[in-house]
Each structure stands twice: as C-alpha cells, then as structure tokens.
Design brief:
By secondary structure, the protein is α/β, with parallel strands linked by helices. The protein contains 13 helices and 14 strands. The protein has a single domain, classed as TIM Barrel (Alpha-Beta Barrel). The strands form four sheets. It has an eight-stranded parallel β-sheet with strand order 11-10-9-8-5-2-1-14, with helices on both faces. It starts with a helix and ends with a helix. The protein binds erythose-4-phosphate (E4P) and phosphoenolpyruvate. The site of erythose-4-phosphate (E4P) has 8 residues, from loops. Keywords: Amino-acid biosynthesis, Aromatic amino acid biosynthesis, Transferase.
C-alpha cells in the first residue's frame, strides 16, 4: 500500500462499526459500482476552503464572530433552479446584513445547501391506507412519491446528489463572488419584498443606514474589496457514509483526509453514538465538524465527543449545535456548557431552535411555532449570559420562498393556513419573512448580551 492509500484507508475505518440510519440498498453490486464512480469524480470543495472555514469558526468559538447556518431541511433534485437557489441565498444575505449591522458582529455564513439531500428518520417505514412502504430518506436515497418504485432506495441517486450539489455550488459561487452579493446590493435583495412584508420594510430602513455608512466611507476614500464579495460556505449532514467516504480525499498539500463533498459536515442527533460509524468517520477528516446535541445529551457524552473529534482542542474544529426544545433549553444547556468550558475545550456553541420544537397540527402537517423557535434562542442567550460564555450562532431550517410551513411570525401564519404552500419534503421551514424577523430579534439579543 502506498502512503496515500494507507491514509485513504483511514477514511474507511467506520465500515467495521454500526452505522445508524443507512439506506437498505437492494443491490450491493450496484452500490459498489456507484461508489467506484463517485471516487473518480473531482472534489466539490477545496481542502484549503475547509481550513479557512475552520479558522472562521475558531473566531466564533473565541467569541469574536457569530455563525449563521441555514437552508432547507431537505434539498430536492427538482428544486435545483436559479430562482430557488437565489431566493435562499438572498434570505441568508439579508439575515447576515441584519446580524452584522444591527448586532455589530462579524457573521460567518454557512448554507445548509449543495449537499443536504439525505434525511435521518424516526421510523423506517410509512403506512398509508393500510399500505406500508420504506420511509422517504431524502432525494439521495429514494423518491418522495408514495409508490413502491419511488420508495425503493436507488444508489444511482447518489450520483444525482453529486451533480445537484455541483450545480448548486457553482451558482452560489457565481452569486457570491460575481457582484450579486456586493454590499451595495442590500436594497436589490429586498426589492421584491419591501412592500409586501413588515420585515421587508424594517429591513429597508436598515439597508438605508448601511447605504449611508457606505457612502460616508466612500467619501473618505475607503472602498474595501471585502464589501464586493461574500465568503459563503456549504454544509450538510454527513449521513449516508458510502457517499461521504467516496468523496473523502487525501489533501495533496498536507496529506490529510478531507470530505470534499462540502466545507463543513455535521453529525445528527440520531447518529452521534460514541461507538458508531458516523463519529468514527468524522474523527478521520479535517473538515470543521458539527454535532447536534439533543435534550438527552450528557456532559460526559459531550466531553467524549471532544476527545474523539477535537483531541488537539483546536478552536473551530468542533461546533456543538444544541437542539433542546424551548421548554428544556434552560434546564439542559447550562450543565453541558459549564462542564465543557471547565474542561478547557474551545468549542463553538450554536442554537438550532427548530428540531426540538416540531409538533403535528390537527391537519396532519408537521409544523413549528415561531414563538417557540424564538423562545429557544432566547433561552440559549440567557444560559450563555448567565455563564459568561459566547452564544456562537444559530442553525435554522429556512427557505427564500413564501411557504406556509411554520406558524406565527410578523406576517402571522395560522394553523389553518398551513395547507396553502406546504412544500417541504420533511420538516417545516421558516419562510423569508419569518427568517428576517428572527434575524432582527437575534441581532437585538446579541447587542443586549
Ligand atoms: O430533519 C430532521 C429529521 O430528519 C426529521 O425531523 C425526522 O422526521 P420524522 O420524525 O418525521 O422522521
Ligand atoms: C436531522 C436534523 O436534525 P437533528 O439531527 O438535530 O434531528 C437536521 O438538522 O436535518
């Protein structure tokens, strides 16, 4: 074995361990052929970009920056279109502008985008009218339609995931570096929105202030290049390990392994078993890693995760994304933060106020109340304020489209409205107006902190 092959084999050590939430592929040979093909494809991101994001997240861990991580619950192959991608990006850019200006903090922008195609599920099957089929696990695995053909896992979909991620990332890079994300466009991002929504109007006022500040700087002869482009990173849950390890490569600069399917990957609440395949996989790659921590997480688990994933205690390597639920965050979070801080580790703490606050409405729609989302973020800020630690960011499921999936917000969506534009393939997302409302409220909390 050459040195590189030996190192690469390190990316496969997860194979001997139990891997939760993996698809039941019906044809192992077909899967092997797909993996071999994926292994020959070029990287989607450059390892150096992952290092840069790790440094940015290091600033978050040290309390010098704030992470805004957001995007779809589940991306869909038929939504890889210019409008959908631009709308999502626009929403994140607007939220970033609000947080930077109103919160007075540098914002690290990371999308749940260009790879968020795989979903862990509570149940392996779904039954409708007496018919039981495999559950939908994301477009990388099977189709959403409730038919035996669509629901059968098909490894060819992993190749579609790669190509959909590549097209998305290509357009995101074009928008963020080609002029669309220039700070002078703060008004343009809002044009379609300003008249129709209270948060759009509030944003317009902020955009005018940013404009004045830019004009002032310009008059002083300052016109920084940094304002013309935006640093934007892609992240997704590293769930289907055959895909992630096929996209794991030895970096020619350093000889280390990187999962080049995205800049940052996270391990979900259902797959973070300490002796499981996902943590083993994550321990071998150099990307910045997130781990979701739900209400049953113990300080001992958090400390073991640090030992496994961040033995060098490198700020930016590990982000704990807590998702406790509005009713539990104030009870569950303090002990975790206290013990991790006392251990000397330097992790970034980020609040996912979505996944602990899901409920089923009488209509059968899975939904979330905007007020619960907000209350969990408030609890997160209160806990960190009480302990003197840094509330490092938010991780949200959102879309730039005008969907009706979560109830409440400035535009007040009621339970009876949910059916109007309920388009998510899995969990309910904040729409653009709710996302902006959240950004304004979080900016206020950050300033008060
Ligand atoms: O996005 C997260 C999970 O995939 C999702 O909450 C699981 O949903 P389920 O409980 O409907 O399977
Ligand atoms: C599945 C997700 O979250 P969690 O692992 O926290 O349930 C997710 O963020 O898509």
């Amino acid at each position: 074995m050459t040195v590189n092959a030996e190192i690469h084999a390190g990316g496969n050590t997860w194979r001997s361990l139990p891997a939760a939430q993996q698809p039941d592929w019906p044809d192992p040979q077909a899967l092997r052929e797909v993996i071999a093909e994926l292994e020959s494809y070029p990287p989607l991101v450059f390892a150096g970009e992952c290092d840069q994001l790790r440094q940015r997240l290091g600033a978050v861990a040290r309390g010098e920056a704030f992470l805004l991580q957001g995007g779809d619950c589940a991306e869909a192959f038929d939504a890889v279109g210019a409008d959908q991608i631009r709308n999502k990006l626009k929403t994140l850019l607007q939220m970033g502008a609000v947080l930077t200006y109103a919160g007075s903090v540098p914002v690290v922008k990371v999308g749940r985008i260009a790879g968020q195609y795989s979903k862990p599920r509570s149940k392996p099957t779904e039954t409708r009218d007496g018919v039981t089929l495999p559950t939908y696990r994301g477009d990388s695995v099977n189709g959403f339609a409730f038919t035996p053909e669509a629901r059968t896992p098909d490894p060819q979909r992993l190749k579609r995931m790669y190509h959909a991620s590549a097209s998305t990332l290509n357009l995101v890079r074009a928008f963020t570096t080609g002029g669309y994300a220039d700070l002078r466009q703060v008004h343009a991002w809002n044009q379609d929105f300003v008249k129709s929504s209270p948060s759009g109007q509030r944003y317009e006022q902020l955009a005018r202030e940013i404009d004045r500040a830019l004009n002032f700087m310009n008059a002083c002869g300052v016109d920084p290049e940094e304002f013309k482009t935006v640093e934007f990173y892609a992240s997704h849950e590293a769930l289907v390990l055959d895909y992630e390890s096929a996209l794991t490569r030895v970096d020619s600069r350093t000889g280390q392994l990187y999962d080049v399917s995205g800049h940052m990957v996270w391990i979900g609440e259902r797959t973070r078993q300490l002796d499981g395949a996902h943590i083993e996989f994550a321990s071998k790659i150099r990307n910045p890693i997130g781990v979701k921590l739900g209400p049953t997480s113990t300080p001992e688990e958090a400390l073991t995760l640090i030992e496994r994933l961040d033995p060098e205690r490198e700020p930016g390597r590990l982000t704990f994304i807590t998702r406790m639920g509005a009713d539990r965050i104030r009870d569950r979070l303090p002990e975790l933060v206290e013990k991790v801080t006392a251990s000397g580790a330097s992790v970034a703490w980020v609040c996912d106020p979505m996944h602990g606050n899901t409920f089923e409405a009488a209509s059968g729609h899975k939904t979330r109340r905007f007020d619960d989302v907000l209350d969990e973020v408030k609890g997160f800020f209160e806990v960190h304020k009480g302990l003197g630690t840094h509330p490092g960011g938010i991780h949200v499921e959102l879309t730039g489209d005008d969907v009706t999936e979560c109830v409440g917000g400035g535009d007040e969506i009621f339970v009876d409205d949910l059916h109007q534009r309920y388009e998510t393939a899995c969990d309910p997302r904040l729409n653009r107006s709710q996302s902006l409302d959240l950004a304004f409220l979080v900016a206020e909390m950050y300033r008060d902190q």
